[in-house]
Structure formats: C-alpha cells, structure tokens
Amino acid sequence: MRTAINTQAKTDKSVRREDSETQQQSSNNAAMVQLRSVTKTYTNGFDALLDVNLEVKHKEFVFITGPSGSGKSTLLKMLYGEELPTQGEVLIDDCNVVALRGDRLSLLRRRIGIVFQDYKLIPQRTVAENVTFVLQAQGYTRKEIQRRLEPTLKLVGLLSKADRFPDQLSGGEQQRVSIARAIVGTPPLLLADEPTGNLDPDNSWQVMQILQKLNAFGATVIVTTHDEQLVRRCNHPVVQVRDGRLYRK
Ligand SMILES: Nc1ncnc2c1ncn2[C@@H]1O[C@H](COP(=O)(O)OP(=O)(O)OP(=O)(O)O)[C@@H](O)[C@H]1O
C-alpha cells in the first residue's frame, strides 16, 4: 500500500495548465494529494479534522471511510478548495491549494473531477447538456466537446440516453451522468463523496466499476463511503476518519 499518512517539506508550484502534459510528467511515485498537519475548525468552534496528514500517490485508488460526522466530506472539500484548513497545508500535485485565489484556483479545479452523493444535475438540461456545460463555460470548441462527449457517455453506459432529462433516469443512471460530467474534461484527480450513498447494491457496484476503470486509465481516485461491503469487495487502501483523525486500516 503506497498511501502514507506522514509529514513532508513545503513546496508550492504554480498550477500547470495542461492536464495531459502533467499526467505524462507525473511519475507513479509522486504525490498527487498531500495534507500536512491539517486542522479544520469550523466557525462555530467545532474541530472537524485535527492535525491530519495524508499522502495519496498518482494513480492510486483510496477509500476514505468513517462514521457519519467524522470529517470525510470536510477532508474532500479541502482538496478542491471548498473549505480552507485552519492550520496546515493542502497540496495537489505540489500546488498549495490554500495559497490559490481566483483564476489559479479555477485552473486547479479543472484538474479535479467531483462526484457527489446527490448527483447535482440540472433538471432542465439533458444528459448531454449536463455533461458538457462545464466544457462550454471553459471555452472548449463545439468540435472538441463533441469529440469528448461520445466516448464519455459510452464509458458510463449512457450513450443511448444522451437526450433524456434527469427525471427520466433512474438514480444509478443519474449518478453515472454525474460521473460523466466529472470526467469529461479528463481530470487527473477524481474525488467522489459518498457516490453510492443513494444507490442499491447493483447500482453501487456499477458505479464502483466505472471508478475503478477510470483509475486503471490513470486517474487518481479518492472515494468516501460508509459501505463496508463495497470496500471489502474492492482491493484498495482504506483510510478511516474517526473524530477528526486519520487511521490506516
Ligand atoms: N459548515 C460547518 N459548520 C460547522 N460544523 C460543520 C460544518 N460542516 C460540517 N460540520 C461538522 O463537522 C463534522 C464533520 O462533517 P463532515 O460533513 O465532514 O462529516 P462526514 O464524515 O462527511 O459525515 P457524513 O458521512 O454524515 O456525510 C460534523 O460534526 C459536522 O456537523
């Protein structure tokens, strides 16, 4: 198991623009994600994470487990800059998330795909539109968007449902749309926060198989889950969060 819970020296590089270039440059042994002595205290004084250290290497697949309220979502939120640590450093590919603002934070976020438990699809938009609207906002050409859309929908098994609206899909299908949206920009890092929390065992397994396939293609994948059975079924490193501290299982 390459996942290490440790402390390392400080580095801060600028966000690199080209995903594919960065992926090629990254060796398997380089850290994709590092938390260094991270504490998160919410404004009400609650310590959600306490002096936490974590390292996830490029191309690893790691589960984050732990009881409800233990700090799993807080940990993921800090990786994409939704929450800032009260103390410590959060590094993505050696880039200090805490120091980023504006465009540089937006560029970093383009390199991170995020999947949520509740899908967060736009009801008035079709599957294809839900998957591609971020690319449109980022200024991709129509040709490039089309080039990316078809293989992405194929990968999640929804090519035939590109013109459906979210309320015409099952929960499992909606979650697969949200995975397609997260990966259509080919981010090297994929974060999934309880992606199977609303799904039955069959759909959960389907989602896990897609995430594992993306990992086999080279993405670093971090998944939070309560589902011990699912964790046991997959052979990936597990980090448990308990009372704001991390434990390797
Ligand atoms: N904005 C906030 N302000 C204050 N406390 C918060 C805030 N967000 C989360 N918390 C608290 O921090 C703790 C960790 O929350 P977090 O959502 O990270 O837990 P979790 O492990 O993801 O839980 P679950 O599995 O139920 O989603 C909880 O006790 C929660 O109540």
UniProtKB/TrEMBL annotation:
Span of domain ABC transporter: 33-249
Stored InterPro entries: AAA+_ATPase, ABC_transporter-like_ATP-bd, ABC_transporter-like_CS, ABC_transpr_LolD-like, Cell_div_FtsE, MacB-like_ATP-bd, P-loop_NTPase
GO cellular component, one term: plasma membrane
SMART domains to which the protein is assigned, alphabetical: AAA
Keyword Transmembrane helix carried by entry: no
GO biological process: cell division
Biased composition (Basic and acidic residues): 10-20
Annotated keywords: ATP-binding, Cell cycle, Cell division, Cell membrane, Membrane, Nucleotide-binding, Transport
Main localization, broad class: membrane
Xref: CDD domains: ABC_MJ0796_LolCDE_FtsE
Stretches for region Disordered: 1-30
SUPFAM superfamilies: P-loop containing nucleoside triphosphate hydrolases
Membrane topology: Peripheral membrane protein
Database matches in PANTHER family: CELL DIVISION ATP-BINDING PROTEIN FTSE, IMPORT ATP-BINDING PROTEIN
NCBIfam families to which the protein is assigned, alphabetical: FtsE
Task of the protein: Part of the ABC transporter FtsEX involved in cellular division.
Family: Belongs to the ABC transporter superfamily.
Name by which UniProt lists this protein: Cell division ATP-binding protein FtsE
